[in-house]
Write a structure and sequence with these properties.
- By secondary structure, the protein is α+β, with helices and mostly antiparallel strands.
- The chain has helices at residues 2-10, 44-53, 56-70, 87-93, 101-115, 191-194, 196-214, 236-249, 280-295, 313-340, 360-372, 378-384; strands spanning 74-78, 81-82, 117-126, 129-135, 140-144, 150-157, 160-165, 174-178, 221-225, 266-270, 347-351.
- The protein contains 12 helices and 11 strands.
- The strands form 4 sheets. It has a 3-stranded antiparallel sheet with strand order 2-1-11. It has a 3-stranded antiparallel sheet with strand order 4-3-8, with helices on both faces.
- The longest helix is centred in the last third of the chain and has 28 residues, at 313-340.
- The chain starts with a helix and ends in a 10-residue tail after the last helix.
């Protein structure tokens, strides 16, 4: 596999170690695990299966966040001047032969929302060019160094493992994107895990509803037998026949509403509570709102009924972009700057929010306020609009 060969060729023994220790407390982190891989502290497969694969609300939230953040264009600046022809700009537009820039970052953000971690791998092709790949977080392990910071990563698949470590120039070819975790030094915390209880409730509600339909949409109950001449029990033959008739003629949605024919001595006694008594739908919608809250998606955008806090759909959409999608994209831009800026002098990566359609009304309001501020110079207006003084100048 070309990818593996590229990684193997790039990892060189005897590479330069980390810089001098700057945090004395950080050294305590790896006293017990210097150079040994540290597994992610959760069951990624279970989170992905029960949350993403089996829960429509969590699935839609992950898709919405990943697609929205990935749709925000990233621009490359060299010494504060935009350069669309720079190798990094071309790299972000086409990270590898299999993916475009938007598809690539959608996958990265999807992993980030599912696992709390996403790993971007840079493969150097020489002459200042390279390729970017997204690595599955459940296959990655952090290798902490003597100072407590990651000195490399170990990637395992199909029984094979390879270590991705710093090269001779000190560049680490893996960028670890992670969400804040208050109880772990090396891994991020997944929104799926924060919403785990709500996801279980929502999934259980769906399973209960499905079971109810499978049982002819009727609550369970008991057949009470009062036999003739004081008999208290059915014979084995009578019991098997009754069980077979109930299974064949009175279960399943195709038999919904069919009346039950009872022999002499049998009486039907309903036993379970109805969905209204259990406040079934309210509990399910409450769980759905809690899941949406964990991902930062307004429930109104998911069609969840309840206590919507936004006046209209547009207001909820702007809140989603400003509070969830944009901060995530800007966090990624800052980390790309810190990561690739050590390899490309004067490099910085920024989000081009002028291309985000959902923020057009907000942008137009800002321009109107700046145009009305006659006490400001053109240069001051441009700066307050987020533009460099020289942008667009001839």
């Amino acid at each position: 596999m070309a990818f593996w060969q590229t990684v193997i060729n790039r990892v060189k023994p005897g590479g330069r170690g980390l810089a001098e220790q700057k945090s004395q407390s950080q050294a305590l982190v790896s006293v017990h695990s210097v150079g040994r891989p540290v597994w992610t502290p959760r069951d990624y497969e279970a989170l992905a299966r029960e949350g993403f694969a089996k829960n429509a609300i969590a699935y839609r939230c992950i898709r919405m966040v990943a697609e929205a953040a990935a749709s925000i264009p990233l621009e490359v600046r060299i010494n504060k001047r935009r350069d669309d022809q720079h190798p990094v700009a071309q790299l972000l537009a086409r990270p590898n032969p299999e993916q475009g820039g938007r598809d690539y970052f959608e996958a990265a953000y999807g992993f980030l929302q599912t696992a709390g971690n996403a790993y971007l791998e840079y493969s150097d092709l020489g002459d200042g060019h390279g390729e970017l790949y997204v690595l599955r977080p459940d296959r990655m392990k952090v290798i902490p160094g003597a100072q407590g910071w990651p000195q490399g990563y170990e990637y395992s698949v199909g029984g094979r493992s390879i270590k991705l470590t710093r090269d001779g120039d000190g560049f680490l070819p893996v960028l670890h994107l992670k969400l804040f975790h208050p109880a772990h030094d090396h891994y991020g915390f997944s929104p799926l895990e924060a919403a785990a209880f709500a996801i279980d409730i929502h999934n259980a509600s769906g399973a209960w509803n499905k079971a109810l339909l499978d049982n002819a949409a009727r609550p369970s109950g008991a057949l009470v037998y009062s036999g003739r001449e004081g008999a208290e029990h059915l014979t084995a033959e009578q019991f098997d026949r009754l069980k077979s008739e109930l299974q064949d003629a009175h279960t399943g949605p195709q038999n919904a509403g069919r009346p039950v024919l009872l022999d002499g001595g049998l009486d039907w006694k309903p036993m379970s509570m109805s969905p209204s008594d259990m406040d079934f739908m309210q509990a399910k919608n409450s769980a759905a709102r809690e899941i949406a809250l964990a991902f930062g998606v307004p429930p109104m955008l998911l069609g969840i009924p309840g206590d919507n806090t936004y006046a209209n759909f547009r207001e909820a959409q702007v809140a989603f972009w400003r509070q969830t999608a944009v901060p995530l994209a800007e966090k990624t831009a800052r980390m790309l700057t810190a990561w690739l800026g050590t390899r490309f002098s004067g490099l910085s990566v920024h989000c081009d929010l002028d291309e985000v359609t959902a923020l057009s009304a907000e942008r137009e309001a800002l321009w109107a306020r700046l145009a009305a501020a006659t006490f400001l110079s053109d240069e001051e207006r441009r700066r307050m609009a987020g533009l460099d003084a020289g942008d667009g100048a001839s």
